[in-house]
Amino acid sequence: METRASFLHDTTRSAQIYKEAARWIPGGVTANIKYFEPYPIVMESAKGPYLHDVDGNQYVDYNLCYGALILGHGHPALSSALQQQLSQIGTAIFGTPHKLETEMARKLADLYPSIEQVRFTNSGLEATLLAIRLATAWTGRTKLAKFEGHYHGSYDQVLISVNPHRRDLAHPPSPTADSNGLPDYYAENTVVLPFNDLDQTADILKKHRHEIAAVIMEPIQGGFIPPDPAFLRGLRELTREYGMVLIFDEVKTGFRIGLSGAQGRYEVIPDLTALGKVLGGGFPVGAVGGKKEIMELCSPAGRTDILTTDSQPAAHEHTTPLFHSGTYNGHPLILAAGLATIETLQTGGAYQQLEESAMKLRTGIEQLLNVHGIVSQTVGVGSIFNLVLKEGSVRQIQDVLESDLSLRKKLDMHIVSHGIFIKPLNRFSISLVHTSKVIDETLERFEHGVKRLVRK
Ligand SMILES: Cc1ncc(COP(=O)(O)O)c(C=O)c1O
Fold it and tell me: Quick check: CB of 218 below 6 Å from ligand 1?
């Protein structure tokens, strides 16, 4: 009760604004992920590692827009790239090809071992959607295999078994719909796999070897549970053997785990890669890249598609290309922001600094929780980690479901009330402006939060 009382006391303006929002916007939020009880905090401004809410509270931000803001808030490199681009081109967008599209595509092909060609989208969701459509067209098969607990965006085909119930690990997972309003078709045509369990995965893939078009996965589950390298390699071999397209959804891990994402770190090369988040420097973006022969399926050159006016179909082997379009795809301002972000990350030592900050914070949090008798561990890779309140290994979503989630929620509310912003139960992300000093400050705030929790 005490936490709730202090939260309510400190966020009265947020409560008022939220109440008004909820009159006009379902649940008062524009994305379900932004909601938490009793109401989400309304922010007003941000600078560097800090967020400021409408009640004048300051928070060290570890949500960083779900990991997108790897340079922190308002980085000068980003602001000047945007201003320069806007004044140079004289408009927000051309609606035609432009030079930055090629520049960014070449950059992605240079950095990501799997990428030969690229298409841009406006979100991670659209990127995974296009990747799956490409795989379906390439193989001529219908089913999609995905891993239990892996998130790929908020659309029908992938809202399956993202948030499963606990199950007996001796039995493989079965598909469950995560939202109302999904036609049964999707659960019926989805095969769900257990992450980091190569034996069960191999059995399931073998059983459906003639039906599965693609295996899509977060190579690091939820951005924080690392894969066994042998598991990733085994999966690569199996998908190759069965002619399935392997899609790495690197929306969280791309440019976060390193300049070449998880595929660079683990040296396992998928057929297609989906990117988003960091790629846009905080602006809406996504990209799909991969093998030229698969990517070329969506080329309209020499073909007829639904938006071309040719009445005569071109004499081409495939007269209908795989359709992909979007008014804002390849937006010049967003690509300028993305290129400035990548350039900043390419300056010496950026990833080392990110990892050192993350490790310092993880060690500090583990020590504080340990001193106060809270069973816990941090689990993560590079600049992303999560806090899991349990002993023993954490290898997949089922292990997280076994942890003390209700204590974690209470802890999260305490630390939010002490000026550390995370979305309750969600992961922590670090930015380049989370310096050693900022981490020290965070640990002080964290200690106050934990002390308040255990005092109760
Ligand atoms: C791994 C992964 N894929 C896809 C998405 C969807 O991206 P967006 O929210 O940009 O649609 C997300 C978003 O969190 C994600 O984490």
Answer: yes
| pLDDT for position 184 | 97
Confidence band for 309, pLDDT divided at 50, 70 and 90: low
Per-residue pLDDT of 49-67, as tens digits, reads: 999 999 999 999 999 999 9
Measuring CA to CA, which residue among 10, 69, 67 is closest to residue 42?
Answer: 10
- Whether 328 and 368 share a structural domain: no
Q: Tell me, what's the pLDDT at 332?
A: 98
Q: What's the confidence (pLDDT) of residue 330?
A: 98
Sheet arrangement for strand 58-61: 43-47, 50-53, 58-61, 420-421
For ligand 1, atom 13, the nearest C-alpha belongs to 153
The DSSP string of 74-92 is S-HHHHHHHHHHHHHHSSS
Q: Is 401 exposed, middle or buried (0-12, 13-18, 19+ CB in 10 A)?
A: middle
Predicted confidence at residue 456, as pLDDT, reads 74
C-alpha radius of gyration, the chain, whole number: 23
DSSP 211-279: TEEEEEE-SSBTTTBPPPHHHHHHHHHHHHHTTPEEEEE-TTTTTTS-TTHHHHHHT---SEEEE-GGG
Per-residue confidence at 305, pLDDT binned at 50, 70, 90? confident
| CA atoms of 142 and 213, how far apart (whole Å) | 6
Q: Check if the beta carbon of residue 358 is closer than 8 Å to that of residue 343.
A: no
Which residue among 61, 197, 249, 412 is the active-site one? 249
Contacts of 301 (CB under 8 A, 6+ apart): none
Q: How many domains, the chain?
A: 2
Q: What is the mean pLDDT of residues 396-415?
A: 97
**What is the C-alpha to C-alpha distance for residues 403 and 374, in angstroms, rounded to an integer?**
12
Q: Tell me: the pLDDT tens digits for 2-17?
A: 678 889 999 999 999 9
193-197 average pLDDT score: 98
150 and 218 inside one domain? yes
DSSP type of residue 160: B
Instruction: Report helix angle 350-371 to 436-455, nearest 10.
Output: 20
Structural domain containing residue 61? 2-74+348-455
The answer on 245 and 234 residing in a single domain is yes
Q: Are residues 382 and 307 in the same domain?
A: no
The domain spanning residue 226 has which CATH number?
A: 3.40.640.10
The position carrying tokens 């960083």 is: 64
Q: What distance in angstroms lies between residue 403's CA and the mean position of ligand 1's atoms?
A: 24
136 lines ligand 1 (CB under 6 A): no
In a shared domain, residues 90 and 67: no
